[in-house]
């Protein structure tokens, strides 16, 4: 057993006959002797109160991440919070049978935002130790939905929540790498990307860092259940040539009434069923107007998104005649008429980084 203070981390991973594997989806996993590497039963995490105090932003991020992985419909609830070490337990013991979760100095995990030490015997995961860069490197506050995690120009260090989700994905068996082997991360529209920027969901009060369609697909593959799920979400990010970008530029454009402008939008389907819904685009004079009616720019009727996939179309619209002059934020709403019964309705509306200064001209 190796005892590690929270300023130093060493990793030792047992691997036998490992193969890197992926499917038609982008999620990745390992196999050993033809079997998927995963937990054979549920696993409990132990919170390190020395570095993740109760009530802190990192504690809230930790709890939210467990809830989000457990909240994927069609996936067995594998992870749970088992308990906590005392506040003077300021170290992590590797290979001691406990699944520790702690914050450490980034320098002790090779400068990364997080790492997960996985102990396993062939296809059976036996222990995980989840180590995240501490508050000196990243914040665990809710990031801004309009910018990918790690790419927000005025709060670039709000990566902690996405990092928790990412490392919990590893703890389940997603994108883990064999010792000395090639990197096994995916570069898709997923929280399992190797580094920021990472896509986010939206909503008036949602946890913006959340599992994307491919993450949900990977969880269901490794831990299948007989249940299904229907859920759409809006995102202000899109995937372009393997890179996460904003659906619209971060700038203010000036337009007269009746004048056109273009942008992309993202509708993600984290559920197990292909869904068609109406996509509404509107503007409002506040970045927190998710629940407002706003001024409708247009509606894309019957847009279909396949199960566990996302789409990133472009759209051109005009500023409606009669729009009062002023500064407006751009919004996208999935399932605009609430015709689809979803597992979550809180992630259906997103504001984009683009703002429009409507001038007193035009129709």
TrEMBL record:
SUPFAM superfamilies: Metalloproteases ('zincins'), catalytic domain (SSF55486). GO terms for molecular function: metallopeptidase activity. The keyword Nucleotidyltransferase does not apply. Keywords: Signal. InterPro entries: Ig-like_fold (IPR013783), MetalloPept_cat_dom_sf (IPR024079). It comes from the Bacteria. Residues 1-24 form the signal peptide. This is CARDB domain-containing protein. It comes from Polyangium spumosum. The lineage of its organism: Bacteria, Pseudomonadati, Myxococcota, Polyangia, Polyangiales.
């Amino acid at each position: 057993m190796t005892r590690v203070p929270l300023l130093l981390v060493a990793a030792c991973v047992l691997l036998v006959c490992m193969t890197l594997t992926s499917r038609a989806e982008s999620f990745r996993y390992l196999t050993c002797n033809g079997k998927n590497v995963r937990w054979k039963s549920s696993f409990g995490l132990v919170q390190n109160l020395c570095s993740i105090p109760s009530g802190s932003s990192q504690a809230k991020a930790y709890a939210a991440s467990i809830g989000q992985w457990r909240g994927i419909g069609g996936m067995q609830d594998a992870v749970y919070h088992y308990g906590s070490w005392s506040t003077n337990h300021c170290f992590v013991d590797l290979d001691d049978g406990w699944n520790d979760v702690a914050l450490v100095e980034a320098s002790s995990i090779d400068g990364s935002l997080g790492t997960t030490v996985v102990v396993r015997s062939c296809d059976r995961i036996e222990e995980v130790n989840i180590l995240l860069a501490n508050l000196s490197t990243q914040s665990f506050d809710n990031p801004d939905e309009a910018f990918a995690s790690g790419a927000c120009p005025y709060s670039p260090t709000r990566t902690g929540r996405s990092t928790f989700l990412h490392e919990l994905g590893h703890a389940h068996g997603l994108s883990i790498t064999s010792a000395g082997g090639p990197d096994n991360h995916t570069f898709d529209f997923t929280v399992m990307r190797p580094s920021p920027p990472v896509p986010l969901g939206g909503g008036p009060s949602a946890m913006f860092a959340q599992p994307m369609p491919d993450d949900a697909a990977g969880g269901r593959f490794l831990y299948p259940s007989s249940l299904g799920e229907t859920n759409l979400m809006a995102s202000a990010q899109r995937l372009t040539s393997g890179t996460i970008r904003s659906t619209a530029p971060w700038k203010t454009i000036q337009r007269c009434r009746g004048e056109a402008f273009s942008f992309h939008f993202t509708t993600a389907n984290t559920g197990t069923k292909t869904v068609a819904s109406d996509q509404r685009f509107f503007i409002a004079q506040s970045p927190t107007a998710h629940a407002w009616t706003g001024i409708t720019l247009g509606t894309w009727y019957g847009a279909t998104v396949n199960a566990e996939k996302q789409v990133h179309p472009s759209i051109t619209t005009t500023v409606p005649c009669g729009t009062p002059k002023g500064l407006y934020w751009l919004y996208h709403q999935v399932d605009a008429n609430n015709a689809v019964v979803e597992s979550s309705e809180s992630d259906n509306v997103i504001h984009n980084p683009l703002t429009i200064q409507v001038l007193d001209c035009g129709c």
